[in-house]
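Researcher: Excuse me, tokens okay?
***
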Amino acid sequence: MKPFHVVKFSGISQVILAFVLFSSLTLRAQTFTESNFPIVIITTDLNPSTGQSLEILDDPKILASMKIIKRPDGTKNYITDQNTTGYLNYNGRIGIEIRGSSSQALPKKGYGLTTLKADNISNNNVSILNMPAENDWILNGIAFDPSLIRDYLSYNLSRQMGNYATRTVYCELVINGDYKGLYLLQEKIKSNVNRVNVLKIKSTDISMPNISGGYITKADKTTGGDPVAWTMSSYAGSTDFIHELPKPASVTPEQNSYIYNEFSKLETTSSANNTSLINGYPSVIDVPSFIDFMLINELSSNSDGYQFSTFFHKDRGGKLRAGPIWDFNLTYGNDLFFWGLDRSHYDLWQFSNGDNEGAKFWRDLFNDPNYKCYLAKRWAELTQAGQPLNYNSLVQYIDATVTAMSDAKDREQQRWGTIPDQATEISNLKTFLFNRIKWINDHINIGASTDCFSVQTPPLVITKINYNPGLSSGFSVSDDLEFVEIKNTGTTVVDLTGVYFKELGLSYQFPANSSIAANTSIYLASNATTFQNKYGITAFGQFIRNLSNTTQRIVLADGYGNTIDSVEYLNVAPWPSADGNGSYLQLIDAALDNSLAENWIASTNISLSKPTFIDAASISIYPNPVSNILRIHTQKPINGIKIYDVLGNLIQEVKQKTDTISTDWTSYAKGVYLLTIYDDNGFTTRKIVKQ
């Protein structure tokens, strides 16, 4: 039996459609006892009037209880485990409703749910199946996909590419004792540090800088009832845009105008091929996010891509970004065949196919040589051996997924009859991917422009990070004391135009035509006034949002998103202790690899602009060059020394509170080394030659 597919209908047409589907399928009850996937058991509350279980509706949510059976050791799960506390990943209250647009006409429904506290009112932020704590979740019924893996594959590929996409876990669902089949339990797209990491904008945020974010906006249908915020031209009609954050009912006129103007600037600058870092499209958008969004939509040949379920987001003080991806069932050669639609082909660009192209800026960006160069470069990277979009990697991932669902897909077929021949579906999907990758390779014109393939980024290094300063006398707000130091290690002035923090969570874009002198440092602070009062130094600029007190990746990038420097710190070992104790992280030497924890110390030196060891005469290091024993003598006690090779690898550390240290260099290979001497307040680094 061929799988059923539908397009959007309303009113009587939808009723007729549902009747056709129900009449065409043989629904089979079955005995369900075990699964190698988590088992989700939902029991709706009883109707007080009838004593019967409440029916789950499209709206509003009804109350229910949910148990998720997941044995911690990863072995098979059993329905009989539902009363064993140690095997319950979740056991609590929820609100649940039917969700989806076209998929609501199918017998198998998708659901949206909110985890609740025992009072049945308060949201309960909990971690489910190792996904970060939240309260909004989705049970994706995998509608219109006879392979059962298109959404799962796409979301995981996007994450492997380094972007946020909803986390997904296969599960099998039982509602009120009725087996409902195979589902994806996944995150709902919303603002959260572990989801779309943008600030939640408030109704009072109507002036700069607060009005600049955060926003989540989507190009989509209006079947959810939300009004169209604005419409933009397409080369194949028009595209409707809808507010997701803030919600349409909460958005102010000022906020609507602000975010609309950001999209308008993108439309204007991309149409004009304006590549200026000051006022061109690179000044408006985070280029890498748009490129990755296009590549995953084009790899999959998403027939709804760009026009529907197309999300964008913008953090406060940050650039407009594309994503996260959403709703990838009509992809990889699949479409609504039942209604005569066949649009997902391997031999066309979805942004330029005459149907569902989305806003004009997608095609205009592709037609810009600079943007296309970066698109081709990223495609070449992602399709290399071992990379996410490499054909062999894709096949291995698909095979592993199919193997894991081997039993569950048989139960799914028995229950709903929608996947009569998954083996053929998977074979067709692999063939599609092989042809698609080859076609893109032939049409992306990697050799047409290679200017972006060897970009020289400026020699800027992140050298200090004060992420959890702690309270200090006269400064009662710890977050106001945060700062980041950036050093120009080169011999010439660096133009900072276009340079910005690329990773969400910390926002700053350097002003046009600003610069940093050779061999000097600048500071960016969370509160420029407090920084001045505390350290007596004028901050170069003030960043938006606060550094995480646990871990954060700080990425400094040029205007096209090329990474200049990147540091991901942690508040646990092996990183030095600088978590709320008055210390900050300080790179021992700007020549060292700042991605390695051992190259940092925790410093309490408040004289940020002055080194600890000012007088070279206060330190004696001899002999240099050295053959055997190197002696270090200082006029005051130090805490220890570290010895590095020229690649920044830590060779030896001596932790000793003393003014004299001797080290044996006999076994060291000939060459140049770096010797770092440190105390409570800082360090100094000297070159040592081993002969």
Q: What stands out?
A: Confidence is low (pLDDT under 50) at residues 1-27. The first helix runs from residue 12 to 24. The radius of gyration is 29 Å. The first strand starts at residue 34 and ends at 35.
